[in-house]
Amino acid sequence: MDKLTSMKVFCRVVVRENFSQAARDLRLSPAMITKHISFLEKDLGIRLLNRTTRRVSTTEAGKRYHQHCLNLLSDLEEAEASLYEMGSKPSGLLKLSCPIDFGVLCLAPAIAIYLNRYPEVKIDIDYQDRKVSLVEEGFDMAIRIGKLEDSSLIAQRIMPSEVVCCAAPAYLQSHPALETPDQLKGHNCLTYAYSSTNNEWQFHNNKERYSIKVSGRLNSNNGRASVAAAILGVGIILKPEFMVREYLDNQKLVQLFPEYKVSASNVYAVYPHRQFMPAKISSFIAFLKEYFSES
């Protein structure tokens, strides 16, 4: 059997933790998946996977071999891409992960323009707030907002993202007045499950700096759900301006502490480190920078 193909099969099984799902992804029969795994284990003289009727898990040796396979396959893909993409125009499938709210409100219109400009590119976009593993889950790049975790990924800043603290007039009329950020401790703050600061809200001006660990009765993994609750007077939110600008303008929400700045946030495009970046990725990042600089 072809060892390289077997390695690709093995990596897909590790991600899916299931032979049948890996078989569907690769358009192979479950029996062929089993043959590829057996071939590798026999060739290496060691068990790579533990199998049960419900799931598959990697052995210690399997985890180590999986990482080596990922590195090797990534290097091979980079070598092939560098030859194929060199001097070519953007084309092919761009698999992208993006936070739901930014994707729907801001990125969707930009993608429409990009696709018209580059007709040979297709985009497969996965809207979710969870931070995906780009290499293991097969994404070309991701859009991320706020503080970036230390990683081997390369990040390019796309645009700044102002953050606003606000609440509905109904909430403010029925609760103690708020004059400074430290008074948030006594209020119902709507928290975010994927907060990069662990829901520690930070404010500052020329004289004072506050770092408030907030809490409240509603925690959500979706920003628009929190905004909707805030509009109905449930509590106070801290959200990117692009999510609340409409409601600030029509006075359904009121900005709090306008004399204080919230710690700066940015929107980034992140992608695995590659010496030869495919044209579909480099063109998309360049386009986003251009688009958001003008909007």
What's this, in brief?
With 295 residues, the chain is of the alpha+beta class.
Computed Rg: 24 Å
Give the domain tally. Answer: 3
Class per helix and strand makeup: alpha+beta
Number of strands: 15
What form results from the Cα inertia axes?
elongated
Mean pLDDT: 90
Question: How many alpha or pi helices?
Answer: 10
**Strand percent estimate:** 15-25%
Helix/strand order, N-terminal first? HHHEEHEHEHEEEHEEEEHEHEEEH
CATH topology descriptor of the largest domain: D-Maltodextrin-Binding Protein, domain 2
- Major sheet characteristics: 5 strands, mixed
Percent helix range? 40-55%
Order of strands across the widest beta sheet? Answer: 4-3-5-15-6
What is the secondary structure topology, with strand pairs?
Blueprint: H1 3-16, H2 19-26, H3 30-44, E1 49-51, E2 56-58, H4 60-85, E3 92-98, H5 100-117, E4 121-127, H6 134-137, E5 141-145, E6 154-160, E7 163-167, H7 169-173, E8 191-192, E9 200-204, E10 209-213, E11 219-220, H8 223-231, E12 237-240, H9 241-249, E13 254-255, E14 261-262, E15 266-271, H10 279-294
Parallel strand pairs: 3-4, 3-5, 8-11
Antiparallel strand pairs: 1-2, 5-15, 6-15, 7-12, 7-13, 9-10, 9-14
Task: Outline the structure in words.
- This protein has 295 residues and is an alpha+beta fold.
- The chain has three domains: 3-71, Arc Repressor Mutant, subunit A; 92-159 and 266-294, Periplasmic binding protein-like II (D-Maltodextrin-Binding Protein, domain 2, 3-Layer(aba) Sandwich), CATH 3.40.190.10; 163-262, 3-Layer(aba) Sandwich (D-Maltodextrin-Binding Protein, domain 2).
- The protein has helices at residues 3-16, 19-26, 30-44, 60-85, 100-117, 134-137, 169-173, 223-231, 241-249, 279-294, and strands at residues 49-51, 56-58, 92-98, 121-127, 141-145, 154-160, 163-167, 191-192, 200-204, 209-213, 219-220, 237-240, 254-255, 261-262, 266-271.
- The strands form five sheets. Strands 4-3-5-15-6 form a five-stranded mixed sheet, covered by helices on one side. Strands 12-7-13 form a three-stranded antiparallel sheet. Strands 10-9-14 form a three-stranded antiparallel sheet, with no helix packed on it.
- It starts with a helix and ends with a helix.
- The model has no long low-confidence stretch (mean pLDDT 90).
